[in-house]
Fold:
Amino acid sequence: MSKTIVIALGGNALLDPKTNGSVAEQIRIIERSCEKIAQIIARGYRIVITHGNGPQVGNLLIQQEEAKELVPPLPLDVCGAMTQGQLGYLLQQELDEALQALGVRLPVATVITRVAVDSQDPAFRRPTKPIGPFYSERERPALEQKGYILEKVGKGARPWRRVVASPDPKEIIELGAIRALLETGAVVIACGGGGVPVVCEDGNWRGVEAVIDKDLASALLAKELRAEMLLLLTDVERVALHFGSPQEVFLDRLSVSEARGYLLEGHFPPGSMGPKVEAAIRFIESGGECAYITSLEKAVEALEGRAGTEISAIHLGQRIKR
Amino acid sequence: MSKTIVIALGGNALLDPKTNGSVAEQIRIIERSCEKIAQIIARGYRIVITHGNGPQVGNLLIQQEEAKELVPPLPLDVCGAMTQGQLGYLLQQELDEALQALGVRLPVATVITRVAVDSQDPAFRRPTKPIGPFYSERERPALEQKGYILEKVGKGARPWRRVVASPDPKEIIELGAIRALLETGAVVIACGGGGVPVVCEDGNWRGVEAVIDKDLASALLAKELRAEMLLLLTDVERVALHFGSPQEVFLDRLSVSEARGYLLEGHFPPGSMGPKVEAAIRFIESGGECAYITSLEKAVEALEGRAGTEISAIHLGQRIKR
Structure:
């Protein structure tokens, strides 16, 4: 039976921050990403694609804010579900086309995914994830009245931004649906934006205004699906120690214990490489064969051991490239 | 094996036009709708839920328009996919809760659905479906330059509105995924807003700015799934002849040929009861057992033959109630 890979697409696989973010630009980037993913699919793997939604949900929140006198804004959980529909559809369209170009005929389906978090997660007491529009000092009191936690993240006239909690993913509610589709041979798109966060309240799921890290959600999904591999795609080809400094060292291969050590030493910043390394560690510790952190461009080579940073259970001796 | 029902939810099952459309109001209406659907599910049927998205996509288009200086607006096909995510998520949440209250444990999954239409469909030459915000005379030239077809649908300062084509649904692209999930016992939410319309271009699917009638899409889905029943829910309990006039007659039961006759005589207006009767006819003609047109409140009774209008292949003698 073919091996299963969960591929987590970073924001740069969906939108180029240097462009205006028009749908034509989004489609151009997604098209390029899907060409790469199609090459992996064509090698016979079973694939689940997860993806970020930062810029998309940010845009949607700005639109909600701008039109708030005309249309009641929707909360963050609903906006997250909307971006799952948006990006799922765009990925389906482009992946269909890229697969067809390679002569591969496979259905591609998007499952709207809720991910349970613990309502007692300490992250709820210390929101850290900035989302949506920037606000002025003048707008601040009304927003705080509304229950928003604001943080001064910028300069100038609009320095304030809302921050929300980023709780740990505990359960993929739609796991059964994702597994069933995967078993029919479909390529499945799921856990978009890390999943819509829900907490259990009196035995029912209630949406919460939070953001789940998509790499950690992907690791949980990969574990639950008993996937063999987790491929975490980002904008650098390999994980580095002393990143951006003269001592910078890129890593080809890491054992879980090495990865954990470097993470504790603070080599991988939170909100960036940190969650990716943490996701890789969790996946391997839960029984996964191999996790890769690399760029979209090098994804195929990484699976063949020719690029990227490979994280696995067994210490195989580090080959360090400078 | 249990019978399969495709349930098409009308807009009134998702949003009360008399309220402000806040998410709390939307959830209240969806909760009530899901309580009714859960009662049907609890009777042992296999269920696919389809739904409209008119007010939701209208709101999203207004938000896109209001923020257009800050965020590039997304085209109608992408907005449609977003409302599938939005309403799919809200329906999943409320249906989970309603099923749990009845002691029924079934997964509920939403599939983002594309529906193919013919690029040569005559509807493209004569757009009729009004969507999104109202515009002033002053805004008209720029919009027409953009390729929008505008129609004067209102009075006052903003009488213009965009109209798009409503082409006939030809193929449910995600049929395989919907069927696979249904076979695992899940309740499936699909074809939201009639599906995202796509046309075939050089062998690939391209999204188009159109709106597919959700009842006709539901009839196609019911046919392809070989569902036994199609339940079309709206805001009246039964189909009427001479609706709203002193000669008004409500119908309990209709054969396909009677329904076709009344449709041709113009009893059922386009954009309202017309597509529902047409959907029922198509479903029965394609081999379906029974189609019902009724209100959400009477849905359970309709399936038991105690309410609603039943349309079937065989002429059973009309019982007319005044």
Remarks:
- The two ends of chain A are 38 Å apart (CA to CA).
- Residues 317-322 of chain A have pLDDT under 50 and may be disordered.
